[in-house]
Amino acid sequence: MEALFEVVVFLAIATFGAALARKLGLLAPILLVVLGLGLSFLPGFPHVRLDPDLVLVGILPPLLYVAALETSVPAFRLNLRPILLLAVGLVIFTAFVVGTVVHLFLPELPYAICVALGAVVAPPDAIAATAVARRVGLPRRVVTILEGESLVNDATALVLLRVAIVAATASAGSVSFGYVAQEVVVATGGGVLVGLLGVVVFGYLHKRTTDPLLDNALSLIVPFAVVFAAEEIHASGVVAVVVTGLGIGHKMPLLLSAASRLQTGAFWRLVQFLLEGLVFLLVGLQLPEVLRDLDEPTGRLVGITAAVLAAVFLARFVWVFPATYLARLVPRVRQRDPGPPVQFPIVIGWAGMRGVVTLAAALGLPLTLAGEQPYQRALFIWLAFAVIVATLVGQGATLPWVARRLKLPPDDPVADALSAATVQQQAGRAAREKLDELAEGAPPAVVERLRGLVQSRTNLAWERLGGSDRETPSQAYGRLRQEMIDAEREVFRAARDEGRIPEEVLVRAYRDLDLEESLLRRESD
């Protein structure tokens, strides 16, 4: 009962923190981390130690899954080269840069365990990247690259971490190139295969399921089932979840009914909101646990912390610029994908926020090295925690300011509206042709009403191109219809209160009116 009470308290604080962040115009992940840091100093406040397995198997899979569901597969494929350069190349580069820096400070430690720490702090966090990038309003391509990087880089880091830990804890010479290659192939290849199998199996089940509640339940099961299946064969659960999420998300219009899509979308937004808030709050609350066994001299601690932070920060910039522009020296690449403005690699370099995966990986570091040799594990956990806080609070809080100062060229809203209107006109033409095909025998008034509905939707798409401050016909319709809906609701509510209709009638009427209002609000955006 006490554990349940603590969970409810944490969720309530996370919800309050997210609401406060919106009111103050701040980024919720940053405020929640700072709030957690502050609460960790309160006497008597519950101290929670994050279980690495809980994070990597219980919290990360659903968050990765929903992020993958919302990722455009065509956009992901179009930006595959920069995504892989960041998610694979940059992670490996950062791990070895940080490992080298730590080894210079602690030469008595095996280089492998120093690289393990590098792998821990190398991957920017999927949750932080998605939450911050969308909130800041970065250009669509930058958001796609950052989200794609964060979906894949955890797998790279965790595979590298596994290999480095084995090298640090096993007997000398037991880790060969063949072992490393086998680990990489099993982790990535196995993860892809399990993920594709997940797309086939759960896609089939979604296709056969018509009840929205069952679709919701099935959707919640998917990420955990895929992770457990991948872990059973020692493959990467992260890769498996991402592949399944991308596949299901891309096919979702064909797999789920309209009611299921609406309900599943709302369900995952709630899950994402609660888990993200809880994760960032818990990261801040880990401070007492991190400091508990730390006994390094202050000067040495400050020096190595500053060096690791500098290595993490600079490694990203050192990698991003060559990765962005060197490939364009190849004429074929340059012709297909011209070099972006310099602001793009700057903001991508700045958006390197670490999060809960880094902390979970740090807590999973071995207690001893080969031959039961002790090492500064508490220091390593502190360094990982320092990187999380410094990048989330430092880079995350300043990212909006950096984006504004760089004056990133925004996505062209006119081009978006024009493409949407063009496709809407084609959709309207298809709808009218289908109506003409089926109209025989239908009441003329019904046919005309349907024609008017198609025409109004097409008109709305073209009205968005107007750019006028005057109220458009569709806006006038939305404003007046909203007032009418409010009046209808009041009549049904009064009738229920007076006992003239049962509660079930009120619920059905409100559901229909709520759906219509949500459509009005979407069309006014």
From TrEMBL:
Topology of the protein relative to the lipid bilayer: Multi-pass membrane protein
InterPro entries per UniProt: Cation/H_exchanger_CPA1, Cation/H_exchanger_CPA1_bac, Cation/H_exchanger_TM
Domain Cation/H+ exchanger transmembrane: 12-404
Highest taxon, organism lineage: Bacteria
Pfam short name (any one): Na_H_Exchanger
Family listed: Belongs to the monovalent cation:proton antiporter 1 (CPA1) transporter (TC 2.A.36) family.
Protein name: Na+/H+ antiporter
Source organism per UniProt: Micromonospora humidisoli
